[in-house]
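Something for you to look into today, if you have time. Could you write out one complete protein record for me, on any chain you like? The space below this message is yours for that.
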Amino acid sequence: MTRGRATRGADCACCERRLSSPQALRFTSHASERLMRRLGIGMKHRRSLDQLSELSKQRYITPYVVGRIYATLGNNDEALHWLETAYQERDAWMAGLKTDPRLDDLRSEPRFQDLLRRMNFPL
């Protein structure tokens, strides 16, 4: 079972406070590596969005992939916007909507559930 984005965000905030405190030397290297890994993942996906934006000027980019990146970054509104666009364009990638683990944080959103319903996926 994966932990929710809110919990991960709280973990990062906690790690940042600890790293800036006088007790930072006692802070385990494991936790700081975990923080850096999480921050790096976010930066990697932001770079991916920038690259996709540039590439989209030259060729078609599936809105499903853009929505998935926004979901990974925790920007649910933007993710749902792109997934809705993918639905309207009948994007073949939408077949993975029900099972894609990168969309787990969206599953409780009414707009996401509406997408699942319109695609005739069981809820």
